[in-house]
Design goal:
218 residues; mainly alpha; 2 domains; elongated
């Protein structure tokens, strides 16, 4: 498990590295390895390491992936409108990833609140990065995407706005949308965190009780 230990040490604060790494390795060797197959034990260890990645870092990573896909699709088909089905697929994928991130964060602390906060943070970070990629798309591909069907309303508003540059107006419109996008990310992420906290609570309730010297197993 050297690779996992190295990754874990990179993810946690320097003052916590020895304690967290030692405790996790001890649990892995004494509790997990004897009871699980080698592959299942490795997957368990990998999940523990991944849970130490901060929600903000996950949000940035998810946003970078979504933004890169958006730019790639625009470069390939700049005049293709965003279909309702495609948008629903993207939203569904984002919410699934936010839920999984929140599940991991909530399990590490065993707190419902941690899962909800994690969902909010990953949602905000993702939407912030997607916003940046949208601004890049507007400024790089404006001469092509201005003729898209889903830009008709924006172009009409531009002609009535008094702006002399469509580029400036488009950036202005996108800037106005930033608070709304971040709020939507926080709300949707919080909902994903709530689902994750509920899932973690059910998993904990279904887990077998551990016997202690003062409490015999039932």
């Amino acid at each position: 498990m050297n690779w996992g230990d190295v990754a874990l040490r990179l993810l946690v604060r320097a003052r916590d590295r020895e304690t967290i790494s030692g405790d996790l390795l001890e649990e892995y060797r004494e509790e997990v390895q004897p009871k699980r197959s080698p592959m299942a034990a490795r997957l368990w260890y990998a999940r523990q390491v991944v849970s130490f990645v901060s929600p903000l870092a996950w949000g940035v990573a998810i946003g970078v992936a979504a933004g890169a896909l958006q730019l790639l699709e625009t470069a390939i088909e700049p005049l293709a409108d965003d279909s309702a089905g495609g948008m629903m697929a993207i939203v569904g994928s984002l919410m699934l990833l936010w839920t999984l991130t929140s599940v991991a964060a909530g399990r590490r602390t065993d707190r419902f609140r941690a899962a909800v906060v994690s969902g909010c943070l990953v949602g905000i970070a993702t939407m912030a990065v997607i916003y940046v990629s949208s601004i890049v798309r507007v400024n790089v591909f404006l001469d092509q995407i201005r003729y898209r069907g889903d830009w008709v309303n924006l172009v009409s508003r531009f002609h009535a706005s008094g702006f002399h540059s469509l580029r400036a107006y488009a950036n202005y419109e996108y800037f106005r949308q930033l608070p709304i996008l971040l709020t939507l990310g926080a709300v949707a992420g919080g909902c994903c965190g709530t689902v994750a906290g509920t899932i973690n609570g059910r998993v904990r309730k279904g887990a077998p009780r551990t016997a202690t010297p003062d409490s015999p197993p039932r």
